[in-house]
Amino acid sequence: MSGAEKIAVTVTDIVPLNELVTRFEFKRTDGGLLPTFSGGAHTVVEMRDGDLTRMNPYSLMSDPMDQTAYTISVRRDDEGRGGSLFMHRNVSVGDEMTISYPVNLFSLDLRAKKHLFVAGGIGITPFLAQIKQLERFNGNWELHYACRSEALGSYVDDLTSHHPNETHVYYDDQDQAIDLVNLLDGQPLGTHIYVCGPKGMIDWVRATAAKEGWPREAIHYEEFLAPQPGKPFEVKLAVSNKVIQVGEQESLLEAIEREGVDAPYLCRGGACGQCETRVIDYTGNFIHRDHWLEDDEHASGEKIMPCVSRFEGKTLVLDR
Amino acid sequence: MTIQFNDETFRDDYSFRNSEWAIKRFPFPFHEDSYMYSVNMEQHRGGPEGSVYEKRFDVDEHYVAEMRDRAMVLADDPLRCQSLPHMTLAGWDLLELIMVSKSEDYPDLFELYRDGNNWRWVNKPLGIDDSFVFLDETTLPYGPMEYITRQAQGDFCVLDQRDDNLWMDAGTVTTQADWSLDFDIGMNFFEWHAPVPLAHEKGIFVRALKFLLNIQQGAPARRLNWTMTVNPLLDTSPENYHKWGIQKTTITPENIGAKQHLRVELQTFFRLPRSNALVFPIRCYLCNFQDLMTVPKWGRRLHRVIRDLPEELATYKGFIDNRPMMLDYLSKFDDGQPTSDGIWPDLDSEPPLKA
């Protein structure tokens, strides 16, 4: 079986935070304790939606030391394929669900003299767990958090009341923006920067920090992509000797799994590299969307990340 | 079962002995009649009852004596145990992992009582009963990693994970096959493996690193590695090479069966939850040739493996000069009969040695 170990949980609390974001709390169905984790870790939540099994990664935002419950926050994506809509509309308190063991692709660098967090929107969630972890050990941190509006500022009140000196909030609709160049300029040596938010924000922070001379190792980022719908296509799986159809609303990885072929995965969001698959033959064009492969690998036509990437064309043969 | 702990030494008079029980469960590392490097990883989730694979951290008859030997090594050379400042949380992770595992797997030997962060740890074989506050170093006599690894057999490398690499940033290393924590501290995976011949060219380390970076919580892994040691020495370190290297010249056709030991490492890998570090315990098992030869399958196979091993590997593993004498001895236990697949002794099904 692929993916991380699974845990059977029960939904114990659902709290709508604002128009877009709802928080879910899970406890172990058998009453036992959940594993501890490190700030920045995510869990993959499995959703039984009729015949479909949706699996979406969500950052754990609860205190990593708290083994009684995990919490996640889910932003509703009306344009997406329906995972977040399912969570918002179909999940109720008392439901039994399956989640994965925590997996961390966005770990703190514990050598850092200071942790500088830059969050955009729902990208705040991994930082909530990291802040709890750092507070326990008197870590040095600072948060710069951009939200669309006060009404959509998830956890702003919590953060500003508990950590008034460390928290800086910026509202787009009030034309407030992070003065990044100045912010970076004032940091002590040994500071690490972490960014989580929309792709544009991640690119901006990475590019600005690089331009200002920050070492690559001191810049950390995480963005989970949701698979995008696209034109249906046909794939031949050479090892399992199957020809399968990938539907408009499903990812290539989901189609492979639907056919009973066990394929490795962890994050299902183009970040971890686990599902990397060798292309044996193709006639057509790849629609690469992952953060894992390098540009030259994308151009080579030799590899694809089936969790988020698609294909348009006549023939695609995979080593799976 | 209750384990009878041996009163034995790994130095000076070398009174170390394996009981018949220990010989039968010895982790013989060759699953076929030849050997070449491979990543050879499998999940570490138990194994046959009584085998070294059964528990998360195997405890055997050598436990008390091995811990005594470790204390002596650390007293002579404190740099065998080091932890860079950012690795303290990983040390607590390791302490928790070992205490929880041992108290669950060996309830007659170890007990752990937890009330929030107030913990009490009872280690009956070593006569320890300590109460302390979890995550508060001031309440333990040593740092958390040193405290618990003074009570656990095998070496422990605690590896930080960052920049898609692993870093040797903490460890307790006193039973090593000729490498030095003090030399390797702070190195990354490729740096500390640089001296290994042949494996780089085969791409072994690139694949191994990729595997290790993806080891997740709740899914530990394991593999075996091996070398040769003359006399039952745990501490075959570069720091003490002047003491043990010369002993390789004391082998004679008369004493080789008793003095020449196959040294096997059971290497396991666990993701540490609170720090996201990886712990790499390297547990050393020693068995001399004459005890190994009591298992006919192992006698046949060891001869064939040592005979056909590439020269680079016999050199790297430090027994190229003694190989002819080893083969003279081992060939007497190889009657040319075929051997069964796998590492297990298969005493009931494998034929005895033909006269």
TrEMBL record, chain A:
Originating species: Octadecabacter dasysiphoniae
Cofactor section: FMN
UniProt domain FAD-binding FR-type: residue ranges: 4-109
Superkingdom of source: Bacteria
UniProt keyword terms in alphabetical order: 2Fe-2S, Flavoprotein, FMN, Iron, Iron-sulfur, Metal-binding, Oxidoreductase
Domain annotation 2Fe-2S ferredoxin-type: ranges: 233-320
Protein name: PDR/VanB family oxidoreductase
InterPro entries per UniProt: 2Fe-2S_ferredoxin-like_sf (IPR036010), 2Fe-2S_ferredoxin-type (IPR001041), 2Fe2S_fd_BS (IPR006058), Beta-grasp_dom_sf (IPR012675), DmmA-like_N (IPR054582), FAD-bd_FR_type (IPR017927), FNR_nucleotide-bd (IPR039261), MRET (IPR050415)
CDD domains referenced in this protein's UniProt entry, alphabetically: fer2, PDR_like
UniProtKB/TrEMBL annotation, chain B:
Any Pfam family the entry gives: HODM_asu-like
InterPro entries registered for this protein in UniProt: HODM_asu-like
The protein, known as: DUF3445 domain-containing protein
Origin species: Octadecabacter dasysiphoniae
